[in-house]
Design a protein that fits this description.
25% helix; Potassium Channel Kv1.1, Chain A; T1-type_BTB; synapse; H1_KCTD12; 238 residues
């Protein structure tokens, strides 16, 4: 049976003078959490602090079982709660949901947490080698071949943040997050796909360069010349 006037919990030994019990149950986006009252009010002036120290239980929304209800991301709330327990941020390596978690931190008015989750600045260089042939009529006979491989150079943690599981690390495995590498490459061959991923996380292009070398030429004027090229695009996030 839903509890109407007192908060759902297993103990009524809360802080002196508080209408809330020591143990509180929350329903966050359908995920149930059980925590201590003092954890929820660990950060003064945060949203949860205001809810559980300035308001009474009757003023807060509840679900059908009497749990306090928050219409937020239930999966990401686990990290919000972990942070409130000891005010330390511990995330899995190369956590892909940082931007969404930062949005949750902003909503719960956890300014220090939101600041820690802000995107790090840095540079990533995208490179690729290609080849093409040029016949006697340079303007019409140029034949471009498929890009063989797109390389990624930069700090390991940034590269993994941007490209995630589309990054091939086989040539430089177990590289520490704060080290740099020039040996990663992507699992696809479309430059536009790489550019889209960089743009989505706040990078923008600041420079590019390209070189071309004649790799094969014949004395026969009727045969095509084969050229190879290397192109780099430098992206920055400030």
């Amino acid at each position: 049976m839903a509890l109407a006037d007192t908060e759902r919990g297993v103990s009524n030994c809360g802080d002196s003078g508080s209408p809330f019990s020591e143990i509180i149950e929350l329903n966050v986006g359908g995920q149930v959490y059980v925590t201590r009252h003092k954890t929820l009010i660990a950060v003064p002036d945060s949203l949860l602090w205001n809810m559980f120290s300035k308001k009474s239980p009757k003023e807060l929304a509840r679900d059908s079982k009497g749990r306090f209800f928050l219409d937020r991301d239930g999966f990401l709330f686990r990290y919000i709660l972990d942070y409130l327990r000891d005010l330390n941020l511990v995330l899995p390596d190369y956590f892909p949901e940082k931007s969404r978690l930062q949005r949750e931190a902003d909503f719960f008015q956890l300014r220090d947490l939101a600041k820690r989750l802000s995107p790090r600045s840095g540079y990533i260089t995208i490179g690729y080698r290609g080849s093409y042939t040029i016949g006697r009529d340079i303007q019409t006979d140029a034949k471009f071949r498929r890009v063989a491989r797109i390389t990624v150079c930069g700090k390991t943690s940034l590269a993994k943040e941007v490209f995630g599981d589309t990054l091939n690390e086989s040539r430089d495995p177990d590289r520490p997050p704060e080290r740099y590498t020039s040996r990663y490459y992507l699992k696809y061959n479309f430059l536009e796909q790489a550019f889209d991923k960089l743009t989505e996380v706040g990078f923008h292009m600041v420079a590019c360069s390209s070189t071309g070398t004649c790799a094969y030429t014949s004395n026969d004027p009727n045969e095509d010349k084969i050229w190879t090229s290397y192109t780099e695009y430098v992206f920055c996030r400030e």
